[in-house]
Specification:
heterodimer; A: mainly beta; glutathione-dependent formaldehyde- activating enzyme (gfa); 10 strands; B: 158 residues; mainly beta; seven-stranded mixed β-sheet; metal ion binding (chain B); zinc (chain B)
């Protein structure tokens, strides 16, 4: 039984899984160019777990030292960006899309907006792709989905005695 | 014809593409979210364009029977979405992602409720953050620059 505020998450393939107790601190979007490129994205959504409340429950991330102060953790098997870590601190930042329930942690701030995409504010007005006439491809992807489910599992890889 | 370059954060993987690139999108599906550790995957299709890897070899994870996702095995940057009908590049991996404003959204069944309001959040520039975190003023980046380079890794890191 875990408290409601406990968060679990991990990478796409499930080789690296983590758990954080308690509320996550300062959920925010970082628009700096380093977070952009590390994430292959327009920004990186991050929030901090206290290190004492944070546990790796499966596997180990790989680390890239992006500067002397900061290292970035990711899954060496599938690449999912997972952590933004300043090792001397008492907290570790998690990428919010790697949470099993990313909807549950709403960001409160944007940082490094000097490098923000100039059209970032317009993304919510984008048109939406119509549903495909034949869902065959979507169904086939769903049937062969190799992504780890959005909850902890007993064993990994999946299917080996799970 | 315009040529665009890009690569991963550390610079082990670099690419170049030239052609008429218009198909830029964001995908909200849960597979793209988790693969990118983010709220959505911004993807730029290079189908029909002249694309080449100019340095290194990406690692790939087969996320379903149809799709492989490429990333840098050294630094983790998500790089590609590779489907039977063509390949798309993670927009943020381009040296100038601002060149590809997305034109459509996919996978909205997975869209996160607050995503449309993110741009309304209050914001800080880096200089302001530096007051709270003075280390930012002395930060030396080991990220590959946003342009092509002759050699990798740079001399000072070898």
């Amino acid at each position: 039984m875990t408290a409601e505020s406990d968060r679990s998450g991990g990478c796409q393939c499930g080789a690296v899984r983590y758990r954080a107790k308690g509320e996550l601190g300062y959920p925010h979007l970082c628009h700096c160019r380093m977070c952009q490129k590390a994430a292959g994205n327009y920004f990186m959504p991050l929030a901090a777990a206290m290190r004492r409340d944070f546990t790796l429950t499966r596997g180990e991330p790989k680390w890239f030292q992006s500067s002397d102060l900061v290292r970035r953790g990711f899954c060496g098997d599938c690449g999912t960006p997972l952590f933004y870590d300043i090792p001397d601190t008492d907290f570790i930042n998690l990428t919010l899309g790697s949470l099993d329930d990313p909807d549950a942690v709403k960001p409160v701030m944007q940082s490094n907006t000097g490098q923000k995409m100039s059209w970032f504010h317009a993304l919510d007005g984008l048109p939406i792709e119509p549903q495909p006439e034949t869902p065959d491809r979507e169904n086939a992807i769903a049937a062969s989905n190799h992504q780890h489910p959005d909850h902890d599992t007993k064993s990994w890889p999946l299917g080996e005695s799970s | 014809m315009t040529t665009f370059s890009g690569g991963c954060q550390c610079g082990a993987i670099r690419f170049r593409v030239s052609g008429d690139i218009k198909d830029s999108s964001i995908c909200h599906c849960r597979m793209c979210q988790k693969a990118f550790g983010a709220y959505y995957a911004p993807l730029v299709s290079v189908r029909g364009a002249d694309f080449e890897w100019t340095r290194g070899e990406r690692k790939r994870f087969r996320s379903s029977n149809f799709v492989e996702r490429g990333f840098c095995g050294d630094c983790g940057t998500p790089l590609t979405y590779e489907a039977p009908d063509g390949m798309a590049i993670a927009a943020g991996a381009f040296d100038d992602p601002s060149a590809f404003p997305p034109v459509i959204q996919f996978g909205i069944e997975g869209k996160i409720g607050f995503v449309d309001h993110l741009h309304e959040l209050p914001g800080h520039r880096t200089e302001e953050d530096a007051q709270a975190a003075p280390f930012l003023l002395e930060l030396v980046s080991y990220q590959h620059p946003d342009h092509e380079t002759q050699a990798w890794p740079p001399k000072e890191l070898r």
